[in-house]
Amino acid sequence: MTLFESTARVPGLPLLSGRTVAMVHEWFGATGGSETVFLAIADLLPHAERLVLWADEGVDTGRLRLSQSWLSRTPLTRSKALALPAMPLVWRTLTSETYDVVISSSHAFAHTVKLGDPAETRHLSYIHSPARYVWSPDFDGRGSHPALRVPRRMLQKADIRLSRHVHAYAANSREVQGRIKRFWNRDAEVVNPPVDVDYFAAAPDPHRHQSRDYLLGVGRWIPYKKFDLIIEIADAAGLPLVIAGSGPEEERLRQLAAAAQVPVHFEVRPPRERLRQLYWGARALLFPAHEDFGIIPVEAQACGTPVLGLRRGGLLETVIDGETGLLVDSREPAPYAAALRRLGELSPQRIQQHARNFSSDHFADRMTRWIEWAIA
């Protein structure tokens, strides 16, 4: 039997109530999937210390009980790229305290934190991804410049050397599980992130009965999210488009939208309730990006909205092709536009049912099992 084969529900927490526990996370933004995961794990361990490199402006560190590192008092917090070389040192000087159990939430180098002798301290790490700009510059252009080739190799060696003490890894998806094996030669259990499917499913009646007459793109407006392709798909399909989010590509995307033959409406930083309304009103969520997991496609499916996306990465886990969405092997708009004609084959009820596999309760159960197994 594998770790997660049993369907019996794990009793509630607190877990490890008789041991000292530290929760560790990288920089803490006001919103983000990795922060959501960190807080969901912390909820399972209410007595744990919560340690972060720094918290962005607007984060209520008091309410969230976040203790920041000495890096938070330096100008390096204004540039993650400049702070990157200092992070391995920060993780080794984070605190003089030692703990029985340390759980890191890592998308850069948090998994290298060492807060006790490995013979006495269990170090567990939940991986959102091995640092993309270090290990996967084809995904993240920040590490792709030829001048960074040598520094990147040095960081790769340090990443492996400084994380040998980690006793157990969890990955947010099979995609990331594969990277952990490929880059670090370590095994990992898959524990998908929590998605608040109950909130998105429980829309008021007026939202549920919209005409679903537009396509929707949601996310951060950065190059690898492929919002330029999303505009091209809507244009090829002849359907209106709503783009929700924010990011540095806004001006370029508005220029592309102005040249499109279909209406393109921008929703900048929509509140959560408005985002739910947008999901319920969309004919489909367009998601042609290669993501590690992707919480947004699950939120859309919780609203009965199918996903039209790239047959890569996390969508292979979150979307059932031909049942809850349609996956395309292309970076060109025409195949997506053609696939849109098949959306009538999909059942909104089946789409919503599938989204429940990624609920917060499901995450809590799987995370609890993994922690109990890892400290045994």
TrEMBL record:
Protein name: Glycosyltransferase
SUPFAM superfamilies: UDP-Glycosyltransferase/glycogen phosphorylase (SSF53756)
Taxonomy, superkingdom: Bacteria
The keyword Transferase is annotated on this UniProt entry: yes
Alphabetical keyword list: Glycosyltransferase, Transferase
Keyword set includes Glycosyltransferase: yes
Every Glycosyl transferase family domain range: 211-350
EC number: 2.4.-.-
Enzyme class, first EC level, given as a word: transferase
